[in-house]
Design goal:
Largest sheet: none
Shape: flat
Order of helices and strands: HH
Number of helices: 2
Radius of gyration: 17 Å
């Protein structure tokens, strides 16, 4: 149990380090892709009947 908790904390910290070390342009591209995906999913929800 303690080992799992340490692993999860390590993964979160590693993710934060990678997030802050990423270039601004890479973040902008990722945000653009996520917004596009969100828009596509919203359109799909509107098309479905019911």
């Amino acid at each position: 149990m303690a080992l799992r908790m340490l692993y999860l904390i390590f993964i979160r910290l590693l993710g934060l380090i990678l997030l802050f070390s990423r270039a601004d342009r890479a973040r902008d591209v990722e945000l653009f892709a996520l917004r596009h995906e969100n828009a596509v999913l919203r359109r799909q929800l509107r098309v479905r009947p019911g």
